[in-house]
Amino acid sequence: MKVKIGSDLQRGIFEQMEASYPNEAGGFLLGQARDGVVNILDIIQVENTFAEEEQYHRYAMKPQDWMRLEDEAEERGLSLVGYYHSHPDSPAIPSEYDREHALPNFVYIITSVMMAKATDMQVWQLRADRSVFDRGTLSIS
Amino acid sequence: MATIRIPTPLRAYTEGESNIEVGGDTVGEALANLVGKHPELRMHLFQDDELRSFVNIFIGDEDIRFMQGLETEISADDNLRIIPSIAGGRQRK
Fold first, then answer.
1. Are A125 and A136 in contact (CB under 8 A)?
2. CA-to-CA distance for A122 and A141, rounded, in angstroms?
3. Cα gap A35→A58, rounded to integer Å
4. Domains in chain B and their CATH numbers?
C-alpha cells in the first residue's frame, strides 16, 4: 500500500499531536484510493473521548463523528480512507489495542511524539485476516 | 426489506455497495442475513457470536446498545448503519 500526503497536511498532524502532548490525539483522513495508492486530501481533527485520565495512552472517537464525516466526505466526492493518531513517548508502531479496534482496507497513520516533539510518522494497514498490521509506504509531497 | 449502510472500509467485501437490503425482524436477523450474503464481513463485525466491542449498529440516530441490542425489532423501512468506534493507543509501559 502506498499513501501520499502533502507536507502541509503532515505539518497539521504534527502540530495537533504536539499541542495535545502528553495525551493522545487523532482524526480522520479524507481522500481517494485508486489502484493501491491512497491520496490523502484532507485531515479532520476529532476530539479524544476516552476518559481524561487514560488519554496519555488511549484515543477514541464518538461513532457519531464517523457518521458525520463519512457523509461529509462523500458529499465532497471523497472517501473516508483512514484515521490517524499519536503515540506519546512511544514508537509509531501499532499496539495490540490498535489491532483489536481496527478494520482492513483503511489507512492507519501513527505519529510518535517524543518529549512533545513529533519525531516519526508511519503508515499501516490491517491484514484482511486481522492477524497483523503491515507497514505501508508514505510519500510526502 | 430494511437497508444496512456499510462503512467505507468494509465495502471491499460487498462489491463496493454502500447500502445492502436485507430481510429480518430483528437487528440480529438482519445482520445474519447480511453476513450470509457477504461472508467476509463476519470476522470484522463479530467475535464469536457477539458484535465486536468497537462495532456499533445504529437505527437512524439510535444506538441499538441503548435499545434491545441484537433483539431490537426492525421494520421494512428502517435504515440501519454499521459504525466503527475507532480507537487506538500505545502499548502500556
1. yes
2. 15
3. 33
4. 2-83 (3.10.20.30)
pLDDT digits (tens, 9 = 90+) for A11-35: 999 999 999 999 999 999 999 999 8
Give the ipTM of the model, two decimals please. 0.92
Residues of A contacting chain B (CB within 8 angstroms) = 24, 26, 50, 57-64, 66-67, 70, 73, 79-81, 83, 85, 87-90, 94-98, 100-101, 103-106, 108, 110, 128-130
Q: Do B85 and A60 touch (CB under 8 A)?
A: yes
What is the Cα–Cα distance from A13 to A34, expressed in whole angstroms? 23
Label residues A56-86 b or e (16+ Cβ within 10 Å = b): bbbbbbebebbbebbeebeeeebbbbbbbbb
Q: How confident is the model at residue A51 (pLDDT cuts 50, 70, 90)?
A: confident
Measured distance CA(A77)–CA(A36) in Å, rounded: 19
Task: Determine the residue of chain A that is closest to B11 in CA distance.
Answer: A105
Residue type, A8: D
